[in-house]
Amino acid sequence: xxxxxxxxxxxxxxxxxxxxxPAGARSTVSPFPRVVSLLRKLKVTVLACLPIQALxxxxxxxxxxxxxxxxxxxxxxxxxxxxxxxxxxxxxxTGIWGVPVYDNYGMTEIGAAVVDCEYGRPHxxxxxxxxxxxxxxxxxxxxxxxxxFLVVTTLRRNGTPMIRYxxxxxxxxxxxxxxxxxxxxxxxxxxxxxxxxxxxxxxxxWDLEEIVFQLPCRRFWAVGPxxxxxxxxxxxxxxxxxxxxxxxxxxxxxxxxxxxxxVPKGTLYDRDELLSIGVVGKPQYIYTxxxxxxxxxxxxxxx
Length: 303
Prior knowledge:
Blueprint: H1 4-15, H2 32-41, E1 46-49, H3 51-63, E2 77-80, H4 87-97, E3 101-107, E4 111-116, E5 122-124, E6 129-134, E7 148-154, E8 165-175, E9 184-191, E10 196-198, E11 201-203, H5 205-212, E12 221-226, E13 229-235, H6 244-254, E14 257-263, E15 282-283, H7 289-293, E16 301-302
Helix pairs in contact: 2-3, 3-4
């Protein structure tokens, strides 16, 4: 792929005397079934991909009759990038694959800028970048620990320096002692356009995943705004019901109305597509109120 992180991961692996097997799933050369076969045949130890791809590869493996936790004994970790990785999503991926997940954040414009330590906490590379968190007005700095708009300035780049570059991401910078010795943590909460406003409250992808992964759904879901709250549509994965007590607890925690519609497995995403040879679309999670009313989420995917 023509992506910065793909080349950085390859270079890092080579520095460790490791063999890299490029197998991008967004082509007809290496569809997901072939990726699954390569993982087993080549005894792959680290799978580097987007978080959603780790989920889709696991789904493909299950369709092929494999258990991601059992049938890939050489796999020891996942290395993810390209999408926000909330604690809830990290827990889901770890539960599916049975290995730790290490994430990093960056952009084509600046390269890798935030990297997980061995304890799975995201630390900013502050020798190379200056990070600022701005309020919604994009003028004033957010309070310490408050989520806002991420602005980055490169410190060591002679060619194409970035000065107070508005990344388009929402983030939260905190100070807390980590076992690795670092005291600053930078959480990436998602793209600005991937947020839902409910009255005066903004819900980003991080918030939405923290809610949905408390429901009996771990893989495919959709959400959109309703007057005074959020409407989640989730696939029934475990035959568990959404208890009224859980809904009340979520509404008290997030101070909005929460509606949940449970649909049969396969309603939101066509898993048979994973076994096809063409380019596979990715699930879409966030919809407008009109799109939810028109049920645009039914077997919806984006390329």
